[in-house]
Structure to design on (431 residues):
């Protein structure tokens, strides 16, 4: 996580810094405490575009830090086209030895628990996450020291130990396993809706509308245009548009954010058998020739199985969301190998969602390079949902506090990756 630092754009846009800092000075409430009405009226006006995990939590955090916030979304929080739609997502702290993400998810664990208590509604099912490595386990070995430093429990299991502990899972071909007991499953669509409801209840303004950014003049965005030509101005703008971020800003983001098709398959379970339901059964990730993952049955929707490999690039607005036969075959193969009691069970539900990949799979959390009052928030890359509440705090520090983003979340890092992608594409076209 970045330390608070002076905004590099301060010398060129002092009025923006002065306006935005007013919102921080007037309120000292915690990130999860409701904002005071006086603070909200005194703070800057921030427009947040996108009510998914990134935008919704950012809007709520900004509101609680004293800003006056308008949240906009074309189809609504957790809608069927959104990367934050669907029923469930994993939350886990094993992050390939990356301290920035490990720290962010550690904070997210705390904030999800606090949100649950505030809502009086379970959205975090502590099933644990079981990591199954058929070959190289460096992903885990690099992660475990950082996890333990942050107080996150993780256990190493031999295949024999795993088979005794998880009797419904076949450990054939597994070299080593790890179990993270405090990890689990988040209710995705339900959480997005709860965040939106909380945001409105605490004084935020939410509107369902299609949004287009206006012109950038003298290094600032004056406003956005809504359906019907309505103009909406603000002091600052946060665009958390998920897979649409590239089409909203084709010049500075463009193909650097690519929406990929991801098929999700749900298998039935034997009648009367609850051994595959949450919280009795763990969420899991199988590291083999492909990385496949899944979650126990939730709200009678079936046993979820998905391929973490990036699918083909798609248009998230027009894509027909019907799963491919190949995806069903891949999912059924891992079910037969790892969960033999489900081998003969039918597919009971399917879903097509999308990842929105950045060049390196890293988040983009930084100023627009040509507009000092615009922040680009995206690049969830299939692993962002769990970070929602912590990422909202993070972006709030950028917008209201002038914090400097971590280098891996900076626009400069994103742009370098985008140029590498372009160079690779050109080489392929001319080979």
């Amino acid at each position: 996580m970045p330390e608070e630092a002076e905004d590099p754009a301060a010398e060129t846009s002092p009025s923006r810094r002065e306006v935005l800092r007013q919102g921080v000075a007037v309120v000292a409430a915690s990130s999860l405490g409701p904002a005071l009405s006086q603070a909200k009226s005194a703070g800057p006006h921030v427009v947040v575009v996108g009510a998914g995990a990134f935008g919704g939590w950012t809007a709520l955090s900004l509101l609680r830090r004293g800003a006056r916030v308008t949240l906009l979304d074309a189809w609504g929080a957790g809608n069927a086209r959104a990367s934050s739609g669907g029923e469930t997502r994993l939350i886990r702290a094993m992050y390939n030895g990356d301290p920035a993400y490990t720290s962010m998810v550690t904070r997210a664990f705390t904030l999800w628990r606090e949100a649950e208590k505030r809502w009086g509604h379970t959205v975090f099912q502590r099933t644990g996450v079981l990591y199954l490595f058929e070959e190289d386990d460096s992903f885990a070995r690099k992660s475990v020291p950082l996890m333990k430093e942050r107080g996150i429990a993780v256990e190493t299991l031999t295949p024999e130990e795993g088979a005794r502990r998880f009797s419904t899972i076949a450990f054939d071909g597994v070299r080593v396993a790890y179990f993270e007991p405090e990890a689990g499953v988040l209710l995705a669509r339900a959480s997005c809706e709860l965040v939106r409801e909380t945001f409105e209840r605490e004084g935020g303004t939410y509107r369902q509308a299609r949004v287009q950014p206006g012109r950038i003049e003298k290094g600032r965005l004056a406003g956005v245009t809504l359906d019907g030509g309505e103009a909406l101005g603000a002091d600052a703008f946060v665009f958390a548009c998920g897979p649409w971020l590239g089409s909203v800003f084709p010049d500075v983001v463009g193909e650097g954010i690519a929406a990929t098709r991801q098929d999700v398959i749900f298998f039935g379970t034997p009648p009367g058998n609850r051994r595959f339901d949450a919280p009795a059964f763990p969420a899991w990730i199988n590291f083999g020739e492909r990385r496949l993952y899944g979650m126990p049955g939730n709200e009678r929707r079936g046993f979820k199985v998905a391929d973490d490999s990036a699918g083909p690039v798609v248009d998230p607005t027009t894509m027909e969301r019907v799963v491919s036969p190949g995806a069903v075959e891949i999912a059924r193969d891992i079910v037969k190998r790892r969960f033999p009691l489900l081998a003969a069970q039918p597919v009971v539900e399917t879903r097509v969602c999308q990842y929105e990949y950045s060049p390196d799979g890293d988040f983009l959390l930084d100023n627009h390079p040509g507009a000092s009052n615009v922040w680009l928030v995206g690049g969830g890359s299939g692993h962002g949902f769990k970070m929602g509440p912590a990422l909202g705090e993070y972006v709030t520090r950028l917008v209201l506090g002038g914090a400097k983003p971590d280098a891996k979340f900076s626009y400069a890092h994103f742009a370098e990756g985008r140029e590498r992608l372009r160079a690779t594409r050109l080489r392929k076209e001319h080979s």
Summary: The mean pLDDT is 91.
